[in-house]
């Protein structure tokens, strides 16, 4: 299980589409693939920042005015 878990995690963190990863490991359901995914805190933070930048770009304005 460790080898599959590492492979799934690396593919997700490197930006491969979830469906591609699911097909590569031969899972019928995305929920099965999700169970093998253990992404890092740094990756979660990147996703959160990306989502926040898309939702509220004015919050990320570098200009203090």
Automatic annotation (TrEMBL):
Domain of life per record = Bacteria
Asked whether the UniProt record includes rRNA processing among its keywords, one would answer no
Alphabetized GO MF terms? DNA binding
Query: Entry's InterPro entries?
Result: DNA_brk_join_enz, Integrase-like_cat_sf
Question: Which biological processes are named by the entry's GO terms?
Answer: DNA integration; DNA recombination
**Keyword Ribonucleoprotein attributed:** no
Keywords, in A-Z order: DNA recombination
Q: Which SUPFAM superfamilies match?
A: DNA breaking-rejoining enzymes (SSF56349)
By what name is this protein known?
Integrase
The organism named in the record is Kibdelosporangium aridum
């Amino acid at each position: 299980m460790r080898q599959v878990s590492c492979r799934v995690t690396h593919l997700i963190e490197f930006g491969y589409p979830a469906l591609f990863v699911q097909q590569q490991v031969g899972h019928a359901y995305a929920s099965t693939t999700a169970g093998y995914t253990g992404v890092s805190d740094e990756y979660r933070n990147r996703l959160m920042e990306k989502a926040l930048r898309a939702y509220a770009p004015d919050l990320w304005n570098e200009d203090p005015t």
